[in-house]
Amino acid sequence: MWLIIGIVLSSIELLLPQKIQRKFKLIPIILGCSAILEALILCGGSSLFRFDWRMVMYDEFEWQIFYWMGLSLAGVIWVRPTFTHWKNNFSIPQTVEAKTLTEILPGETGRVIYEGNYWQACCQDKELKVEAKQRVFILGREGNTLIITPESFFDS
Q1: Is the pLDDT of residue 112 over 90?
Q2: Which domain holds residue 44?
Q3: Of 12, 58, 79, 91, which residue has the fewest beta carbons closer than 10 angstroms?
């Protein structure tokens, strides 16, 4: 039974990754792994670990839930923070410079070079044309597209 619960809880994380808020990420899979560990302990994990689990593990279902909750809480407290810091949020500092590679027509996108990488970019002013090989300022980012404004915009 614990194995089925563990598989169901783990699959929730895999099937609904976009539906779960960031602060709740990895909790279903930790609960599932705790249930699978509980199943291994109850189904003969003592021979694998060379330890008599009957001294600490009771067969009553209430105690099984208690141990599962303890394993889950330990996983959420100690394991989850380790894996949630892997995502590196890319942010652009305020008022950084780039150089256009292609002409950016009004309302269209073009290419710029920023810190040695080629980016898709569009002008913040949708009615402004930006020439190629012109210095521009990056105002922000929307997905993989940089929002820019030409240097001449500040001169006038």
Answers
A1: yes
A2: 2-84
A3: 91
